[in-house]
Amino acid sequence: KIRHYFSTLELTRGLGIALLSSAFIYLNHWGFSYPLLNTFLGLLALYLLLESNTKTWFISGAFIGLFWFWWIVLSLIHYEMLWAVPIELIIIMLSYGLIFAFIAKVSTLFVWCCALTTPKVYLSKWCCQGTTPYLFSLLTKALGLLLLSYVHPFSFDWFKPELLFVESYLGITKLDFILILLSLVLALWRKSLWYVLLVLLAYQPLSSNIPNISPDIVLTTTHTSVHDKWDKNKHQAQFDALFESIDKAISDNKKLIILPESVFPIFLNRSEDLLSKLEEKAKHISIVTGALYWDGETPRNSTYIFTNGKIQVANKVLLVPFGEANPLPDFLSDWVNKVFYDNAVDYKADSKVTDYSIDGITYRNAICFEATSEKLYEGRPQHMIVLSNNGWFHPSVESSLQKLLLLYYSKKYGTTIYHSVNMSESYIIQDGRVIK
User: Fold this and answer.
1) What angle, rounded to 10 degrees, do the helices at 132-147 and 109-116 form?
2) To the nearest 10°, the Cα dihedral for 154, 159, 160, 165?
3) pLDDT of 333
4) What is the rounded distance in angstroms from the CA atom of residue 280 to the CA atom of residue 69?
5) Which SS3 state, helix, strand or coil, does residue 257 take?
6) The dihedral of CA 226, 228, 231, 236: what is its sign?
7) Is 316 a catalytic residue?
8) pTM (2 decimals)?
9) Phi, psi (5° rounding) for residue 316?
């Protein structure tokens, strides 16, 4: 009986807007991403959304949440919680659907206000004349879209409307997005597509710089499933493969090898044999690797840096909501961990980001999720090493969305990113381009 609440037009229009708003992720994933196409699809999605009603905004938001983040439920498979998949999908869709609907509903207040205001009231003289209420409604929607990147349901901050243009001919800064939205608002208000040409003010030419990447750095990609990763019987074979990669890098006269997140799924600081072996290898090459750390009370997800005869440990600062730490209040968090995660203890995060130096170059440490958050880019780091494990969401578009987010931050802050990944390809991002 959904027809009692939504018309066929509202449903199809909302679904169409969601498809247009999500196309850039899937085009990147399938290898068909082109700047001109992404520019057109992004502008069309925003144009159609701005002129839509509240119900269409709800449908658009719900399906955007689904198309962008459906892969989150794949992690439930590893916890043997298939029954929770539809529940989590509904929560995702409702979360973004209601956020979008709230923006659209607020935008109708101007029309509602003018409908109740008599001509004698001063308000009507400046905001209720002609098509002005419609302009205010459009501007409110545009403001909502502009602020959406600051809305983080359950501390999850991967939704950024500006991301639509990360692989386009348009810029991704807030000023660029304001210019894009303003041009579309004027085009709708004045009923003339000529105003869309104002988006040229947000034009950002593709970088023509020749990548300046050190040939002495090795990014290692591993292909270890979540099931195998935590199987202690398979650890030795996995560790042997990692040391073979290190030995090959040494034989190739490389200076730095970067291994993915938690490729040593043990408390490495408590394993003297492995530490000694890595220290010995580090006499010939610097090593950056992911592993666990135990401080005697709580576990940490960490990066171990072996260089110049020293070991440095850099702990994760921003933890994955529900995956590493429960964002709910303590009384709910304890119950959720007890019922759903076998009394598992939450990881502990450091309060400050860590920078470390290798061969005279300073790198910002980042582990998976936190590399896609604004906090890690405070101070505009020139170089960042990111370690990830995408096995929890394989196969899906998660790795592509992650790559687009890293590209977004690299463009925004001018940071060169070295990304070593488990279960998807590793790459370097520099000057607005991905180098595989």
Assistant:
1) 150
2) 170
3) 56
4) 43
5) strand
6) negative
7) yes
8) 0.93
9) -65, 145
DSSP 66: H
Neighbour-count burial of 116, counting CB atoms closer than 10 A to its CB (0-12 exposed, 13-18 middle, 19+ buried): exposed
Confidence category of residue 344, pLDDT binned at 50, 70, 90? low
128 noted as active-site residue: no
Tokens of 382: 């020139």
- In degrees and rounded to multiples of 5, residue 310 shows phi and psi of -120, 155
Q: Specify whether 368 is catalytic.
A: yes
C-beta of residue 176 within 8 angstroms of C-beta of residue 202: yes
Cα separations (Å) of 248 from 252, 281, 288, 304, 394? Answer: 6, 11, 15, 20, 28
Taking only the tens place, the pLDDT of each residue in 354-382 is: 999 999 999 999 999 999 999 999 999 99
Which is the catalytic residue, given 128, 162, 368, 403? 368
Among candidate residues 10, 261, 370, 398, the one labeled active-site is 261
- Please tell me the distance from the alpha carbon of residue 300 to that of residue 294, in angstroms, as a whole number: 6
Phi, psi angle pair for 205, to nearest 5°: -65, 150
